[in-house]
Specification:
This protein is an alpha+beta fold. It has helices spanning 13-16, 24-42, 53-66, and strands at 44-46, 70-76, 79-90, 94-99, 102-107, 111-116. This is YolD-like protein.
């Protein structure tokens, strides 16, 4: 075991008495990284492409009715774009989304995923 090595050959008393805890010193780092990752994934919903349009509209309708700020992950012109804001209106073809850039019409078929916006705790 690394922690119990004989270090009597070293000239300094502090080095002779040093006890290496091995991987225990990294456990706090691992746990904090793990918790951060879990928090990130718990706020994310990915909509599979096979999800029917009616199901997408149901999920988005819940966000609309509750007035929850969210992030829409969309595909536009072969690029992935994120819009953060609130759903202001819905119809059969698109969602009207109010973001910091203004109002954006997002067709349902362009929506790749939905994330709940992170709350600012002040």
């Amino acid at each position: 075991m690394i922690g119990n090595r004989d270090r009597q050959y070293l000239p300094f008393e502090s080095a002779k008495g040093y006890y290496d805890r091995g991987m225990l010193k990294w456990m706090g780092f691992f746990l904090s990284e793990f918790n951060t990752a879990m928090d990130h994934f718990s706020n994310q919903m990915t909509l599979p492409e096979a999800m029917p349009l009616s199901e997408r509209m149901r999920v988005l309708g819940q966000l609309y009715l509750q007035g929850v700020e969210s992030v829409l992950i969309c595909q536009k012109n072969q690029q992935v774009i994120k819009y953060q804001g609130i759903i202001k209106d819905m119809n059969s073809y698109y969602v009207l989304f109010e973001s910091s850039e203004g109002y954006v019409q997002v067709p349902y078929q362009d929506i790749l995923g939905i994330e709940l916006a992170e709350e600012n705790h002040e």
